[in-house]
Amino acid sequence: MTAPKTRWLAAVFALEAGLVTCGKKVQFWQNCAARGLCDSRYEVRDHSVHDAPPGSPKGHLKPLGHPDFLDSWDGEVDVFTEPLPPEKFWKEYHGPRKPFILKGAGLRSPAINWTDQYIMDSFGDEVAKVEWRNEDRLTDYCGQEVKGKYIHCPKDTIPYVESRTSIRNFIKTSRADPEWGKYIISQMPDNMGKEWHIPGFVNCGKRPKDDVVKGKPWMTQMYENNFWYLRVLPGKMGTSTIHYDMNHQIMCVFSGKKEWIMWDLQTESKNIPMWNEYYSPPSKGRPQGSDDSPIDGERVDLLRWPKFAKARWKNTTIEKGDCLYTPAHLLHYVRSWSDDEDDYRNYALMTMFQTEEKFDPAHCSDVPDYVRLSDYDVMWGEFPGSEDVPRCMNHIKMGYPNWKRMLRGLAKQELSKDAFVAFWNQHARYPKKRIKAAWESFQAETSSSERWSQRVFASTALAKLAKDVACAGEGHDGPERKLRDGESWDARNEYSMKGGKTGYTDEQHQEL
Asked: Which tens digits make up the pLDDT trace of 32-45?
């Protein structure tokens, strides 16, 4: 391996020094971890991959968090060892968009004791979304025009692959082949929520008057739940891209460790290149969507992006039993590994809530410190779902629309049956027969003596209809089939979102 790596490094150094330019079209490359050269922990990695040409700026080709970046370090995130009161959370962390750790908050959850056998026995039949353990998003842009430039890609680019398999099959495969470079990042099966007690600081989110949970007026509307699982050999790690997400998140780690490096785009956006530049600060509204950076987190190119050296960053490492609050739109990079000689797993659970949720002091008394996730009416918490909501059943629903917005629109004024059918038809192509059936169920399960808005939010039939219409809008016309034992299939396997190998050239990554 030494000779090919040396040739690759020599070629890269020549490119960075401007010595090789003639005829070159490719300006973006897959990151070092995705190519297998930087997927080991820094302390055991071959450091020659980080050797920079003489005269390079401090930190050039070094990994994020390296001592060469200490000049721009802004310290570690806040750490708490006791439950945070909701008032403190909403005013001091949610509002300013500040992350923090709640040490040991996951230790009271049964999920802390899950063995692989227990996971397979209890949740193993459910389907999971599987991706490369070391993420890269170059294929999102191959053949696309980004900021006025056409993106060319090397011919040996590794395709983006998103697979479906059962949790049981994934665990069996990862145990049989420890070098298998995949991980689960998927919607959480319902029953996992019964074994995770989430911190109560998230509560006291404001709800519409008639959508308050009976007996639990403090309960915040949660949006989506996720399950993360990877297995790594000693010294190896999983890596993310540098990116931000659109929702507020609470993640608890139950095995392994996750190092987070974070940047606040409210102050640092001018120093950090982003692929799409979708970000807008809270004062100017929401970003257009999630976004990521072309910077390689394990090998930062400061010749190309010198301003990045000035970007102020924070960091933290969460370990078994810790929970982390990450605000929406916080740029971050994550390394995942395990240094437990008896357990090479790294698994975590996450729940989210949306940016439209606001603090409601009027419903913020007698709030428990911890609440089982299954007690919440999570918007997209039902997985695999049921035949009552056929277009959602068995589909991995991550980033799906807020279907309660449809109910809020419906609740504004009472409608006739014909107006009711027209209301739902405007959201997606959906069978009128099912809409009319939902109307009949709605009439049967609620009383006409109640306020219309009360009836809308209390109706099980309308909640099911709204979810099914939302899934129809995502292109589903029925349930996703259950997988046979040991089966897997690729939902996506693409070199370019434009199709085929659009944007590809004869150039290749020089490490090969």
From this structure: 999 999 999 999 99
In angstroms, rounded to a whole number, what is the distance separating the alpha carbons of residues 28 and 26?
6
Element (H, E) at 336: strand 331-337
Q: Which residues of the chain have pLDDT under 70?
A: 1-23, 511-512
**65-101: burial string, b at 16+ Cβ within 10 Å, e else:** beebbeebeeeebbebeebbebeebbeebbeebbbbb
Note the Cα 76 to chain centre separation in Å.
Answer: 22
At 285 the pLDDT is: 87
| Length of the chain as a residue count | 512
The one-letter code for the residue type at 281 is: P
pLDDT at 315: 98
CA dihedral sign of residues 302, 306, 309, 312: negative
Signed CA dihedral, 375, 379, 383, 385: sign only: positive
In whole angstroms, what is the distance from residue 245 CA to residue 287 CA? 10
Strand boundaries in 181-265, DSSP class E? 182-187, 197-199, 224-231, 238-239, 243-244, 248-255, 257-263
Q: Residues 198, 351: contact at Cβ < 8 Å?
A: yes
| Residue 7, both tokens | 């040739």
Q: Is 488 exposed, middle or buried (0-12, 13-18, 19+ CB in 10 A)?
A: middle
Inter-residue contact 198 to 81 (CB < 8 Å): no
What's the per-residue H, E or C state across 151-175? CCECCCCCCEEEEEEEHHHHHHHHH
What is the pTM assigned to this prediction?
0.94
Burial class of residue 418 in the structure, from the number of CB atoms within 10 Å of its CB (0-12 exposed, 13-18 middle, 19+ buried): exposed
**Tens digits of per-residue pLDDT, 230-255?**
999 999 999 999 999 999 999 999 99
